[in-house]
Write a structure and sequence with these properties.
The protein folds into three domains: about 1-245 and about 255-285, Up-down Bundle (Rhopdopsin 7-helix transmembrane proteins), CATH 1.20.1070; about 300-360, no CATH class; about 370-405, no CATH class. The chain is globular, with a radius of gyration of 28 Å. It is mostly helical. It is about 75% helix and about 0% strand.
């Protein structure tokens, strides 16, 4: 037990060193050209990315130290180490793009470019196949794991040994110092291995669905934690990516709100390891239903309000510009006021719709209590009221036994 905890601590310390290394050279290379079109790819976007992926080794160390027999913690540590090695590309940015005479820049660029695949592949396959107790659903799922592992090895070798310029890694003018010319024709089709990893990720997601359908009690709640975190990340990107696409991509002045939204979307990746920690340790396990309900409500609410705002800015602003010839500031103001006025009514309506569709028991209970409170205003006979109260309690709470105790009047005591 002590040896395993010591090993987990050693891997975590390695991850801390890698992320500190990456963060240091990320700050030094903040002026380097970025090939990404993601506007949050500057200094703050890079720091948000490092914080998000650092939650993987932190969560892995916590689980491996407390539950060393569960491989989930060890998988998170491996994922964190892979992201740490991938993040060391900031050193290559500093040495290659800013032309500093430091050794090893191109080599580290190649190695860092090959480390993203195991990080993504292990997250999408082994983490899903073994969550939450570290055991497969059945023997046939071993083929998914082995196929993914072999494809990841082939894909990483292709990314590292493929000769030629490092254009895909963001260094088009640099030749791969680790490339093997003799393997060029073979490694050119290594993208097939990456495609196989993606297919195995889809199969692993299907295994999680099967596990949820078979699970009962705490295990079902554990799967809900992971599914809720993944859905939260997907919901954030479902809003941020289309909104970012509507902004003029040729504009050099990215709106501050868009950069903040994209930075927040990077941070949202940290929800997955946090949810895994809650699920595996079974900490406040049964609160996930409340979290899912609120996530659904506010994700739909944000999407509707964003559509309302963008539609208002486009339609009202364009109409006012055609009429008055002025700027679109009035359209932005009107759209902002419309969003503020619509927030509360939309939230209430969306919450009722979510409860009606996904939480029918709660919706029926609320409707029953609402109807009872209306009848109570016209009902004065204590026997009729007490009988109806018992009926309402049985319908909404479904207790094993229910009774009413009535306080006697003062004269009968």
């Amino acid at each position: 037990m002590k040896a395993r905890r010591g090993l987990a601590t050693a891997v975590f310390v390695l991850c801390v060193a890698l992320f500190l290394f990456a963060m240091t050279f990320g700050v030094l290379a903040k002026d380097a050209d970025q090939s990404s079109s993601w506007s949050a790819g500057g200094l703050w976007g890079g720091l948000a990315y490092l914080v998000a992926v650092f939650t993987y080794p932190a969560a892995g160390w916590l689980l491996a130290a407390r539950r060393p027999d569960n491989p989930i913690g060890w998988l998170l540590l491996v994922i964190g180490a892979s992201w740490g090695f991938s993040a060391t590309a900031t050193y290559a940015d500093y040495t290659v793009k800013l032309h500093h005479d430091f050794a090893g820049g191109p080599v580290l660029a190649v190695l860092a470019n090959g480390c993203w695949l195991p990080a993504v592949g292990i997250t999408g396959t082994f983490l899903l196949l073994l969550f939450p107790d570290g055991r497969l659903l059945g023997r046939r799922w071993r083929y998914v794991g082995w196929t993914s592992a072999v494809a990841m090895v082939v894909g990483v070798m292709g990314l590292i040994l493929n000769p030629g310029p490092l254009g895909d890694a963001g260094y088009p003018g640099v030749q791969n110092p680790l490339g093997v010319d003799a393997l060029g024709p073979v490694l050119d089709v290594s993208w097939v291995a990456i495609f196989v990893v993606v297919v195995m990720m889809v199969a692993s997601a299907a295994s999680l669905v099967v596990r949820y359908r078979r699970a009962r009690g705490p295990e079902r709640q554990q799967v809900k934690w992971l599914a809720a975190a993944a859905a939260g990340v997907a919901a954030v990107y479902a809003v941020v990516v289309p909104v970012g696409a509507l902004v003029d991509p040729s504009s050099q002045d990215t709106p501050a709100w868009l950069s903040a939204a994209q930075t927040a979307s990077l941070l949202s990746f940290g929800l997955i390891p946090v949810a895994i920690v809650f699920a595996v340790l079974r900490y406040r396990l049964y609160e996930i239903d409340v979290i899912i309900r609120r996530t659904l409500v506010y994700a739909v609410l944000v999407a509707v309000l964003a559509a309302l705002y963008l539609g208002g800015v486009t339609l009202v602003g364009g109409l006012l510009r055609d009429i008055t010839g002025g700027s679109g500031a009035i359209g932005v103001t009107i759209s902002t006021l419309a969003v503020a006025a619509a927030f509360q009514p939309l939230r209430a309506r969306i919450q009722r719709a979510v409860d009606h569709r996904f939480y029918r028991a709660r919706y029926d209970a609320a409707r029953t209590l609402e109807a009872f409170s209306g009848r109570l205003r016209d009902q004065f006979e204590i026997d009729a009221v007490s009988g109806e109260v018992l009926d309402i309690v049985r319908q909404t709470l479904q207790p094993a036994h229910a009774t009413i105790w009535l306080k006697p009047p003062e004269a009968q005591r």
